[in-house]
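Side project, low priority. Logging it here so it doesn't get lost.
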Amino acid sequence: MASVEDNDSGMESQEASQSSPKDYTPDKKPELEPDYDDEPDETLAERLWGLTEMFPEPVRNASYTASEYTLAGAKGAYNFSRSALWIVFSTSIILFAPVIFEVERAQMEEMQRSQQKQMLLGPNTAVSGGMTPMMPSMPR
């Protein structure tokens, strides 16, 4: 019988250790939001500066050098693109402006010739392309 009683007491200890979380009621409720009123406010720059202390000195120096070279490269690329665009556009204007003016002048001369033909020969001649009108044939 002793073995049955030992099993019963072992079962009770197992049941006590496997109690559900619902049965547990703490004396003090844990705080969901910590109290930050006593800490001074810090800016984003101060926080980032504080984070730099967790990296070793060579890593900080390398990241600083990389950021400086990146900034210098971006400025150089911007200045180069400004100069290159100025050269391309000013050269194209100088080279193509005479061609554009010559084409415009040729169109104006053609329009003036068309107007002269229309005034001299009538409205049908300017539309037909300057061909001479055909004489109607004589009936026999």
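Brief comment: The chain has a mean pLDDT of 78.
Revisit when time allows.
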